[in-house]
UniProtKB/TrEMBL annotation:
Keywords: Monooxygenase, Oxidoreductase. Its EC number is 1.-.-.-. It comes from the Bacteria. This is LLM class flavin-dependent oxidoreductase. Pfam families: Bac_luciferase. Residues 9-25 have a biased composition (Low complexity). Residues 47-374 form the Luciferase-like domain. GO terms for molecular function: oxidoreductase activity. InterPro entries: Bact_Lucif_Oxidored (IPR050766), Luciferase-like_dom (IPR011251), Luciferase-like_sf (IPR036661). It comes from Streptacidiphilus monticola. Residues 1-25 are annotated as: Disordered. The keyword Nucleotide-binding does not apply.
Length: 405
């Protein structure tokens, strides 16, 4: 998820928490669907961990990756719904260059929790190769894998992997459509602007029902106890109305970035609904997909007061942002605007569950109420410390989640 676009700051209360603005009346569901909306609000929220594999100043790559592996195991033990893995190249902002490879390891280390990519960057890899990896993970994990995809940024990666700026600026729809055909078909050929090849068989086919995972002492069939067929879920990182429309037209849920406030996310959900209905999808179809939208954020749970958690993140995250984001290099030398690290950390603390367990639960419930999004991917490694991250995950699962059920 890009952290280089500067969002508008939130309104604040005297206590320092964001005051949630009124949403436009037109973003509400029609009256005849109010009963269905009320029932949906009673469903429990699904809370997962978002892991950058961030290299904080003074740390090595192995230390950052080890923290991700340990945090995933802890997240499963804490009862979190999922972990979401970021993918970056050549920068300390994230040390994982292949989210699918790391997902394979983590699916083998766990038994129930879902593992997703947030995101696999499509312009720098072949959609068929990514589709093959996704099918493999889906079929061998008992259906616990989710493929998140995105456009990425105009970074030097495009040059290194011989993709070119065109792939970033205009090639994402073609890549996404080819990927979806690969995940949903038995034979695929391509006659596009970027990809052309004769029809070939799809092996392995993601549409087959996954075999339940077998362990030495138990049998696992997926995070919810059911076998999952029809291919892995696919979700699209959306940072603009163009990407919102693209996801809606394909019937795919959105992953919305941690820089956006509740009002902005609610507006994107409303735009998604309008685009999906315009594309010919029924209200029931739209509502089923909307239930799978994911909101990215930050979580830090501390005792005492909301200021304790805030102080912890303000000690570590500005330095990390300065170190990690400054390393990004554009492919064509274009000027890029970097957020002020201190102000960005303050913004994230304002927008997301940072504080006591009660404060965090209230913040998540408020976001769900305002946006309609009930699934979360929360950055839990903001302290930069392995043990503090594991404790944060334990408290998120043990103290925050029970207040949301």
């Amino acid at each position: 998820m890009s952290a280089t676009q500067a969002p508008a700051g939130p309104l604040r209360t005297p206590a320092g928490l964001p005051r949630l603005p009124r949403l436009p009346r037109q973003t509400l569901l029609p009256r005849q669907r109010a009963e269905e909306q009320s029932e949906r609000k009673q469903q429990a929220l699904a809370v997962g961990a978002f892991l950058l594999s961030a290299q904080f100043p003074g740390q090595g790559h192995a230390e950052a990756l080890d923290r991700t592996v340990s945090t995933t195991v802890a997240a499963e033990l804490a009862g979190l719904d999922s972990v979401w893995l970021a993918e970056h190249h050549f920068v300390p902002y994230g040390t994982c260059p292949s989210a699918t490879t790391l997902a394979a390891l983590l699916l083998g280390r766990t038994r129930q929790i879902r593992v997703g990519t947030a995101v696999s960057v499509l312009p720098t890899q072949h959609p068929v190769a990514l589709g093959e990896q996704a099918a493999l993970l889906h079929l061998t994990s008992g259906g616990r894998f989710t493929l998140g995809v995105g456009r990425g940024g105009p970074w030097i990666d495009l040059d290194v992997f011989d993709a070119g700026l065109e792939a970033f600026e205009h090639g994402f729809p073609e890549s996404l459509d080819l990927l979806l055909r690969w995940l949903r078909s038995s034979r695929v050929g391509a006659e596009g602007a970027r990809y052309r090849f004769p029809e070939v068989p799809v092996v392995p086919r993601a549409t087959e029902t996954p075999t339940p995972q077998r362990f030495a002492d138990t049998l696992a069939e997926g995070h919810d106890g059911r076998r999952v067929g029809g291919g892995p879920p696919v979700i699209v990182a959306c940072t603009s109305l163009g990407s919102v429309r693209l996801a809606a037209q394909r019937g795919l849920p959105m992953l919305l970035g941690m820089h956006a406030d509740d009002e902005e996310k609610a507006g994107m959900v409303a735009a998604y609904r309008a685009a999906a209905l315009e594309a010919g999808r029924t209200p029931d179809q739209v509502e089923r997909v909307e239930a799978q939208h994911v909101s990215a954020g930050v979580a830090q749970v501390e005792d005492g007061s909301a200021t304790a958690a805030r102080r912890r993140l303000l000690r570590t995250m500005p330095g990390f942002f300065q170190y990690g984001l400054a390393a990004h290099r554009t492919v064509d030398g274009r000027e890029r605007r970097m957020r002020d690290p201190q102000a960005y950390t303050e913004l994230l603390c304002d927008l997301h569950p940072v504080g006591t367990a009660r404060t965090c639960a209230d913040r998540l419930a408020a976001t769900a109420e305002r946006t309609g999004i009930r699934r979360f991917a929360l950055l839990v490694e903001g302290s930069g410390d392995r043990e503090a991250t594991l404790e944060n995950v334990r408290r998120l699962g043990g103290e925050v989640l029970p207040q949301l059920s």
